[in-house]
Amino acid sequence: MSHQESLTAYLAAFVAELVHSGISDVVVSPGSRSTPMAMVMAEHPNLKVHIHVDERSAAFFALGIAKITNRPVAILCTSGTAAANYFPAIVEAHYARVPLLVLTADRPPELREIGAPQAIDQIHLYGHHVKWFAEMALPEKSVDMIRYARTVCSRAIAIAGKAPAGPVHLNFPFREPLIPQLDENLFRLTERPQGYVKVHSGELLMGDGHFQQVAARVDNRRGIIVCGNIADERFANAVTMLAEVLKFPILADPLSQLRSGKHELKNIIDTYDTFLRNEEAKAFLKPEVIIRFGAMPVSKALTFFIKENPEADQFVIDGGGDWRDPAVLSTDMIFCQETSFCEKLLPYVKGNSSPQYLNDWQQVNTVTKESMTKVRELPELSEGKLFYQLAELLPEEATLFVGNSMPIRDLDSFFLTNGKNIKVMANRGANGIDGTVSTALGAALYAKSMYLVLGDLTFFHDLNGLLAAKRFNIDIHIILVNNNGGGIFSFLPQAEHPKHFELLFGTPLDLEFEHAVKMFNGRFTKITDWEHLRLEMEKSQDIKGLNVYEITTNREQNRAEHREFWQFVSQEISKFVKGEF
Amino acid sequence: MSHQESLTAYLAAFVAELVHSGISDVVVSPGSRSTPMAMVMAEHPNLKVHIHVDERSAAFFALGIAKITNRPVAILCTSGTAAANYFPAIVEAHYARVPLLVLTADRPPELREIGAPQAIDQIHLYGHHVKWFAEMALPEKSVDMIRYARTVCSRAIAIAGKAPAGPVHLNFPFREPLIPQLDENLFRLTERPQGYVKVHSGELLMGDGHFQQVAARVDNRRGIIVCGNIADERFANAVTMLAEVLKFPILADPLSQLRSGKHELKNIIDTYDTFLRNEEAKAFLKPEVIIRFGAMPVSKALTFFIKENPEADQFVIDGGGDWRDPAVLSTDMIFCQETSFCEKLLPYVKGNSSPQYLNDWQQVNTVTKESMTKVRELPELSEGKLFYQLAELLPEEATLFVGNSMPIRDLDSFFLTNGKNIKVMANRGANGIDGTVSTALGAALYAKSMYLVLGDLTFFHDLNGLLAAKRFNIDIHIILVNNNGGGIFSFLPQAEHPKHFELLFGTPLDLEFEHAVKMFNGRFTKITDWEHLRLEMEKSQDIKGLNVYEITTNREQNRAEHREFWQFVSQEISKFVKGEF
Q1: What is the strand order of the sheet A250-252 is part of?
Q2: CATH of segment(s) B378-555
Q3: Which of A43, A54, B184, B546 could join B469 via S-S bond, C-beta 3.0 to 4.6 A?
Q4: A333 touches chain B (CB under 8 A)
């Protein structure tokens, strides 16, 4: 058996199994040690191979594909620091529960830890941030070793996908020569040609006894439901039906996908981030029960509200079986698939006899919405109004990806319920500003129409990511909110300490991004006013490729506007709560 | 004791101790959780605080400062994926033995692993790639805790600096509020105001008995000395004196800093990468003894030569006490500080009675150099000739930083001994193409005049790094060898398999980098011919700021030229060895 035959058969079996196990996209970064795997992958007719030079961007690009398709995506790089560049996206995937199959090429054991070039210690390289790590055996062609390669592949993908989903790392040692033998029978498997082992993976489901207990504690009480992102598409219907019977309002995080869609929207509360800053509203709406699904919401106001109600029964439901309770106030941790929880609880609850509490929430929400129309009057380009406008301007079934720091918070405050089925995405696993451009571009590959809103620091951090737009001809509309620095710091206590503020936090970049956009063959448009934005958004659906729309704002003015707005709305809400309406 | 007082006193003590322990540069990336440390650092009059938005570039920038100053540099970032972005530079620092003090801010224990925003598991985040990790205690102001903060600081810096040098990671949990109280007595320490504990760190030194044994085995034999990079500046004199007595040629890797300088140059062999491709030369120069210092050399030809002489006594000297022997042929591992080894061995060796073997090496080297002048005749811009020219064109005491992949190999082949005291640098810990721009810029802060030569993929990979040039007004001359893709792959076996070659390995970017250079306020010059390059290099010393000179080459033509050249030189060497000269 020649080296080349062993190498080829082993990798062909692995790659064939990748496809049988549901992988359709791989993101490959060029390198030498990874040559055999890259060449075998490129040969497979059912595998889309995306080449991305910068491994940091590459991994985020894969994350974006995995997020929008809800399917695991594989990434491949060579040995050395290439693999270390994957780390930020792996950490994000771990906390955001996105399945990634991380494949790294390595020196064989005899070339490790002896100063060989480009050899680093890749064993458990990503520590606790992957769900599983396996050091693969050297390629062999025996029946046993082919079975091994196929099993590990299927197993790794299953582990990445099962709740809570996340990244898995396989490290492949390869000896030279690194060239496989490609022929037309490459992927013809003698044993079990349709896939070696299919993984049937169960979910966390609870028995009836539990539901009886929970029902008794939530029925006929003043309760709210708080929803973060849940990947399961059936969840929206299940939770809205439960809320309707319980007469609980649903406080829908912008990433919950509940603010728009085909489900029942009437119990959805979307302006809580604004009205829960008002002490009177908080007292008026005091809950006895809080049921929470998914990650903690973006809204700090809501987080404080949850913290300020320690006497409420707080149920945290997690299908991943994890402990998601930063308020440290849960009375009940429920490890159960979220849709199933809603559906199975339903027959046990009698339902609330009075809709009063729900009505209170709905009315405060309505008052807030009405006073929010004040935002509409702002004549100058501003960060909050942008999202208010986007809800009107974005097309049906658009995907809106938002950067972290200020945009996600403005989205939360100002992007309200609408009937357009707009999918909202962000990297909220670890809330980093890194990799945003690449994640959005990966998602854009499979999105109907992609709109990305992000700040200048976030845009700069992943400028390299734009290469994907150019190389893969991706259609994307990027709204760059350029306030020349870190806008969020103006809202933090350090803003009161001017001495080192601009140096350490303001960090103005003073960059004209038009140059970079040109380099990547993009179209750059400087938005002059709201009317200009409207016109650009209206025609955007017919415009292909990379499009960047810059909106210049001012950090100081932005802060003042936000404060003024919150103050105004707060007064209106107080009037309502006091019955002065 | 208020929270703010504790926070301030603890961090002020830590930062004061940083300075007492020899840290003068910190590279800080903006963030919220790291606010208290950043503010205290900015307040210290003897600390240079460099702000860098992209943590990946920031860490490489710090690496560059540490490499050129031979002093530890601190880096600081906030919690979350920010810290993960440090990973590539940490891995490089680990293998390149560069001291880095990595400071990460973190959520306090009660906010970890419960789904709190921007909280990731930062305990042992960098695994085996740091020399020491410590999870710091929460800030307190008691005498004991101030002593603790100062001791850990001093200790961490000592560990980072002692051989083998490398990165150390301290993780700081901070509770809100995050604002310290800055006043003029901030750094006034009551106890031991001039530094808490000074670390006196010894080196690996051997006893006389060992040297007698080694001397007996190297005296009067056909031996060679192979030198990689050794940070100790006294090493050049010590090793050249030893070589002169032993009559051993010194095969000087371009990063050994032995190819130019004030030491004795006559036994330095600088064209071995070319002539050791010739079988007759290898047989003619067969050694009985190989003494090797530092990392493995860049040259593959030399690596093969070492491997092809298993019967030789192979001594590997490492002051870091590590096992640097990828050829797996060492007969003797010598854990001893390298300069001391040379100096202490000298009195025990009688010296070689015949200079014949040394003369043979010198003559082959001379013949090779003479036939290399053929490169000079190449009329068109080409990658090999570039380095040949640079040895002539660079100014006295310039620093030449080279990218990995092709430039370092061409440097090895074509950048020959010269009397200009040119310092040569590269990232050869893990040989990555990442972070090159940033490392060179960090080094440029303290270099007399910095010239960076790198390929287009390497330039692209760290394009963000250019922000430092703009923000800190760094003077740098970047020679961008643009062959539109991965040039090195044309020299690897996959070049014979055209099917997926351009997709997987050639990876043409088709970017006009002029746009990016403009965005960073740089001067972009497209070099038209050799005369143009000469003129630009001549006036370069008077030109400040960021300067990029693009040299467009062709991958196919480059490969053909290299092959042709090696063939020609090989024929000349064969003639000489056979006595046909």
Answers
A1: A268-269, A250-252, A223-227, A289-293, A313-317, A332-334
A2: 3.40.50.970
A3: B546
A4: no
Asked if B82 and A511 come within 8 Å (Cβ–Cβ), the reply is no
pLDDT tens, A169-189? 999 999 999 999 999 999 999
- Residue ranges per structural domain of chain A: 3-173, 208-366, 379-566
* Phi-psi map region of B10: left, alpha, beta (phi>0 left; psi -120 to 50 alpha): alpha
Q: A-contacting residues of B 254-313, CB under 8 Å? A: 295-296
Output the pLDDT for position A581: 66
Residue in B90, B326, B467 closest to A114 by CB: B326
Q: pLDDT tens, A341-394?
A: 999 999 999 988 899 999 999 999 999 999 988 877 888 899 989 998 999 999
Count chain A–chain B contacts defined by CB atoms under 8 A.
Answer: 249
Region A494-506: what's the mean pLDDT?
93
Specify the pairing of strand B423-425 against strand B398-402. Answer: parallel
My answer on whether omega of the bond before B379 falls inside 30° of 0, hence cis, is no
Per-residue pLDDT at A205: 97
Q: What is the pLDDT of residues B37-76, one digit of tens each?
A: 999 999 999 999 999 999 999 999 999 999 999 999 999 9
- Under DSSP, is residue B406 helix (H, G, I), strand (E, B) or coil? helix
Are A91 and B82 within 8 A, CB to CB? no
The class (CATH top level) of B3-173 is alpha beta
Q: Which residues contact A117 (CB under 8 A, 6 or more apart)?
A: B296, B326, B428, B431
Interface with B, mutate which of A15, A51, A504, A509 (most B CBs under 10 A)? A504
- Fold category of A379-566 in CATH: Rossmann fold (3.40.50)
**ipTM above 0.85 for this complex:** yes
Tens-digit pLDDT profile for residues B529-557: 999 999 999 999 999 999 999 999 999 99
Q: Residue B324 in contact with residue A117, Cβ under 8 Å?
A: no
CB–CB contact B467 A509 (8 Å):
yes
Query: Is A503 in CB contact (< 8 Å) with chain B?
Result: yes
Q: What is the 3-state secondary structure (H, E, C) of A5-38?
A: HHHHHHHHHHHHHHHHCCCCEEEECCCCCCHHHH
Q: What is the largest CA-CA distance in chain A?
A: 88
Q: Which one of 3.40.50.1220, 3.30.830.10, 3.40.50.10260, 1.10.10.10 gives the CATH number of domain B208-366?
A: 3.40.50.1220
